[in-house]
Design brief:
The protein is globular, with a radius of gyration of 17 Å. With 215 residues, it is mainly beta. The protein contains two helices and 13 strands. β7 and β8 form a beta hairpin. It has a single domain, classed as Clam (outer membrane lipoprotein receptor (LolB), chain A).
Length: 215
């Protein structure tokens, strides 16, 4: 899947990477863990994310790479700056997970369980707890998905393990149909309080997608 990507929010500047990926193209595989942002700002032609490696690439030349990139985040808090490779890892891992949800729930080793009901925006949503296996690289091994009565996702919750377990509430909306499948094109991520409510006075990340193509 390929899409044009525009994003902003407080996270990128906080990590010292403001502006790098404001406008780019993101491509993710749907049969394996792989994602790429092209261009990767002015730093590289593209990034190359896989389960155990992140690289920045120009043509066939690998400019830099990191194996077992998750381990490089040990001891990080929300305010810890990122290297270019850490930004590439987070962005690739995040967009692969977002664009493959909910289909990734059917993958081997991914477990889900009923989390009951949740009332928000005058709607009743079904909450599903999701547990990802060690064989998949996601920035939060335990997440939650909220599904509306129309069976479309409304929100995701997770604690970003590679940023000090920072809790987030991630809202999705503005669905379009591509290849016969409905995808949200608008994503807004806010801090999540202990009561589970989003703290909407702080926009952590905004993501807008357009031109979604399946191939």
């Amino acid at each position: 899947m390929t899409a044009s990507l525009e994003q902003s929010g407080a996270l990128w500047g906080l990590k010292g990477k403001g502006g790098v990926l404001d406008r780019t193209t993101v491509t993710v595989a749907t049969d394996r863990q792989w994602a790429s942002h092209a261009p990767f700002g002015t730093i590289a032609a593209r990034s190359d994310f896989t389960t155990h490696r992140i690289a920045l690439v120009d043509g066939t030349d690998v400019l830099s790479e990191l194996h077992d990139p998750r381990s490089s985040f040990a001891g990080h808090s929300l305010a810890t700056p990122w290297t270019d490779l850490q930004l590439a890892f987070f962005a690739g891992c995040a967009m692969w997970t977002y664009l493959n949800t909910p289909f990734v729930l059917a993958w081997d080793g991914v477990a889900s369980e009923d989390g009951g009901f949740w009332e928000e925006n005058g709607e009743t949503w079904r909450k599903v707890h999701v547990h990802y296996p060690e064989s998949l690289e996601v920035f939060s091994k335990v997440q939650a998905i909220y599904v509306g009565e129309d069976n479309l996702i409304r929100r995701l919750d997770y604690d970003v393990e590679i940023a000090g377990n920072t809790p987030g509430a991630h809202y999705v909306s503005d669905y379009v149909t591509a290849g016969g499948i409905q995808f949200p094109t608008r994503r807004r991520i806010f801090p999540r309080g202990e009561d589970g409510q989003a703290m909407k006075d702080t926009l952590v990340v905004s993501i807008d997608l357009s031109g979604i193509v399946l191939s």
